[in-house]
Structures are given as structure tokens and as C-alpha cells.
Design goal:
With 362 residues, the chain is of the alpha/beta class. 22% of the residues lie in helices and 30% in strands. It has nine helices and 24 strands. The chain is globular, with a radius of gyration of 22 Å.
């Protein structure tokens, strides 16, 4: 997450972004093979093949993550200066483009696109964001959250075009120079950032004959269709409430990996996710607890600070998720309520005079 926020703003150094220093692996006798591609998993002989190198395994964990969706070549996705944000190389490639007064087009009004827009606007660029759906965040949030962030971005000079798609990117030679939109308008641009979702990296697992659904299929323990192979993070789909779920978040990747590690050692623990997410845009920190899929209505809680608010999602009478903007107390209380399976009355939520912490004891 810092790649699309503090790193691009120059507020975080490369060294601070590593999960662990090199010494961590050395001290624990972990062999770290960087810059290597696994060519094949030989399940019969229980080895992985990296070029000329063969590494045996008793248990194998696939934590291959996801990769960003890219624009097709037919609409100019292969032009230079058309970027996605997923890894360090992506961030380093686009960083030199963030020059004041340059024009950037952002495709996609999800969290990645909005975070990129916030960084660009903060750096003084002229930002246009287009979203094909009728509103930004339409796939992940209620209209109230969409309205909040639309207004936030507009106050920072970002032009947001909703219900409008990209028709074509044009190039000056191999370099992107303009964009044609579905409303017939044309924009002169210096570069493009594409944030239109991700797809799980399942190619290696599929080539190995493992079962694939919306990701690498695992059971509640994290085992794939091969008992010796496990998977964790947003590359895999796991059972959840009589359905199947694939979560694209850092907390899920960490928590699921820890459960898989324990199960490799024989713990036999079912993975039960406690979903939470976050997004930083300008001076607003959005914290999300729960999953809002299937909500029937939203209760609004506004605080005296106009930038602090929270939107509480209900499915009929049950609390299922919360979006909290600059309101960490609402987020922490909601998270604890959701993890305990508790529901609180709507009128208590909407009344800013009620201390949310008192709801934990009801």
C-alpha cells in the first residue's frame, strides 16, 4: 500500500518499505531466492524447478498474489507512459512523471485510482479520473462513501467523470499523448495510470493441475487440491459462509499465511477472516471493517468535525460493515462489534452524542 501513497509522495524511503531486512532471513537460515522464476511444480516428485535449479519440498506454499488488469493493445494499452501500480518497479517507473502542471489521466474510480489521484493532485498535477460505472467506488462502497470521496477530490481540483469510459489512447509515435472518451471528448495528456482491478496469479497453480475457481481453490485450512500444497493471500479462494471468498487485502494475506503456517505444523485451524481495509487520500484516512456485500441500508454518523464521519452498513437488522473517515474510534468499535457478532440499534449509531464505546457492553 505505501507504493501508491507515501512512496510516490517521497515521504517514505525504500528501506522502510521492505517487510524485513536481509539480516532477518539470514539469522533464521531462510534461503531467499530473489529474481527467480519458478518454471514448474513437479507434484509427483515434490520438487520445484527454477531453470537449472531443483528444490525439493515436503510442503509448498503458493503466495503468488495478483497482477493488475491492463488495457488492451487495441485501445492503446501498449503505449509508453501507460502505467499500473502494483510493485516497486511500477512506482519507480511512474515517479518521474509527477511534475507540477503535467496532465495525468486515471482510468478507474476504485481505491487505487483515487489514491493515485490524491498523490498527483497533491504534487500539483492536473488530474482527470474516469469511471465507467455511474459512480466512483460503486463496486466496493455505498453511495454515501462515493459522495464523500467525490467531494473530497473535487475540493483538491480533481476532475471526476462518472459513467464515462475510455474509447482510445492515442500516441505520438510510441508515447501516449491524448485520450478519447466515450462521451466524445478528447484530452491532451502526459501519462496514464490504470486502476481497473486485479486478477489472481494462478498460472503456475493451473499448470500444475491444481483446482482453480476465482483463484487457487483452498479448503478452510488453506490446503489446495493437493494436500502437500497450500496457498495464502489474494491468489486463493477459500470457503466463507457457505460460499467462496477471495480477499484482496494486506491483513488477509498476513492472517491467512499465519494460519497456513500453523496448519503445516499440524494445528488444524480453520481460517476465519476478520476483514478490514484502509485507504489514505489527502488528509483523510478511510478505515473499513467487515464486508458490505448484501447490505440493505446505511446509517450515517456525522461528527462535529465535518471530515470525520462513518457509514454503518446493515443487512436487514444485522450490522455487517462500517466505513470510517478520520474516525478511528468508530472503526475500532465497529471492528470489535463485528468480530463479536453483535448488532447495535440504528438510532444509537446516528446519535453523535452517544459514546460508541458504551455499545460494546450492550
Amino acid at each position: 500500500p505505501p507504493l501508491s501513497k507515501k512512496y510516490l509522495l517521497g515521504e517514505m524511503t525504500l528501506e522502510r518499505m521492505y517487510l524485513r531486512p536481509k539480516s532477518y532471513y539470514d539469522d533464521r537460515k531462510i534461503s531467499l531466492e530473489l529474481g527467480q522464476t519458478v518454471d514448474q511444480i513437479d507434484r509427483e516428485n515434490k520438487v520445484i524447478i527454477l531453470g537449472e535449479k531443483i528444490i525439493p519440498y515436503d510442503d509448498l506454499v503458493l503466495a503468488t498474489g495478483s497482477r493488475p488488469r491492463r488495457l488492451s493493445e487495441t485501445i492503446g494499452g501498449n503505449l509508453e507512459k501507460v502505467f499500473t501500480i502494483r510493485d516497486l518497479a511500477d512506482a519507480d517507473a511512474m515517479a518521474p512523471e509527477f511534475i507540477e502542471e503535467r496532465c495525468v489521466l486515471i482510468i478507474g474510480g476504485g481505491y487505487i485510482g483515487l489514491e493515485a489521484a490524491a498523490v498527483a493532485a497533491t504534487r500539483g498535477l492536473k488530474v482527470t479520473l474516469v469511471e465507467m460505472s455511474d459512480r466512483i467506488l460503486s463496486r466496493v462502497a455505498a453511495p454515501q462513501t462515493s459522495d464523500y470521496f467525490r467531494n473530497l477530490h473535487k475540493t483538491h481540483g480533481v476532475t471526476i467523470k462518472e459513467g464515462i469510459g475510455l474509447t482510445k489512447l492515442n500516441g505520438d509515435g510510441d508515447m501516449v499523448c491524448s485520450a478519447e472518451l466515450s462521451d466524445g471528448s478528447k484530452l491532451e495528456i502526459d501519462f496514464v495510470i490504470v486502476g481497473v482491478g486485479i486478477v489472481p496469479a494462478t498460472e503456475l497453480a493451473k499448470a500444475s493441475g491444481l483446482e482453480i475457481t476465482d483463484g487457487i481453490k483452498v479448503d478452510s485450512l488453506g490446503q489446495t487440491s493437493d494436500p502437500a500444497i497450500w496457498a495464502a493471500g489474494d491468489c486463493c479462494a477459500f470457503p466463507y459462509k457457505n460460499a467462496e471468498l477471495r480477499l484482496e487485502s494486506v491483513p488477509n494475506a498476513i492472517d491467512q499465511a499465519e494460519v497456513v503456517a500453523q496448519n503445516i505444523l499440524g494445528a488444524q485451524i480453520d481460517y476465519v477472516p476478520k476483514p478490514w481495509f484502509w485507504s489514505d487520500q489527502y488528509d483523510v484516512k478511510l478505515q473499513i471493517a467487515g464486508l458490505n456485500s448484501g447490505f440493505s441500508d446505511v446509517v450515517i454518523r456525522k461528527m462535529p468535525d465535518q471530515k470525520a464521519a462513518s457509514f454503518w452498513y446493515y443487512a436487514d437488522q444485522k450490522l455487517i460493515a462500517v466505513d470510517a473517515m478520520n474516525d478511528p474510534r468508530a472503526f475500532m468499535v465497529a471492528k470489535r462489534l463485528l468480530e463479536a457478532g453483535k448488532t447495535v440499534p440504528r438510532e444509537a449509531i446516528s446519535n453523535p452524542q452517544i459514546n460508541l464505546k458504551t455499545l460494546l457492553s450492550t
